[in-house]
VDHAP protein
Amino acid sequence: GEALEVTREVNCVVDFIHGCEDQLQKLKKQKEKGLLYGIPVSIKDHINCKGHVSSGGMVKFLGQVMEEDSVIVQVLKSQGAIPFVKTNIPQTMINYDCSNLIFGQTLNPLDHQKSPGGSSGGEGALIAGGGSILGIGSDVAGSIRLPSSFCGLCGLKPTGNRISPSACSGRTFVLAVMGMLGPMARDVDSLALCMKALLCQEMFRLDPTVPPLPFDEEVRLRGNP
């Protein structure tokens, strides 16, 4: 409901992930509760979700429905999270604004005259507007950090290859800097919890190219006395 309200104002949601109600019912039957049990999570447009399109803001990809969830979405689900919406991006994602010819312009919920930043601008707008408490964006040259800054949020671009990029519709760009998926939220503790949940055996099993290093709470606390 909140996400609908926010997107009516700022145009940040591009799709609702069907099946999230079924997933909630499944979770209730599970004995073990994951670290993100019952938390609705918003997902940036280009991250593959089964049965949905990853448009990249480009018309040519609108007919390609994804046959399986990306690794990060599978891991989120295994930790009890409920991916519930996909959010807007600029066309091709190499942009610091957030508009494309399919879904239009996303506005900054703090000031409708301003941009939410990009390319994870739909995430920034939805979380800042109160429609999501945790989102997954991606960042090559600021695409998590800029919308987090523009919208007054916290965001993290993890170290390269820390989180599996597998099954994202990354149109292949030759870049000197590695693009990474990462969390966006309203506070640092939420980012830490999300990273702790993602860096689990399921992630390392699904993508053996990710170094099997769990989240180090001591390092985090040392950096945040």
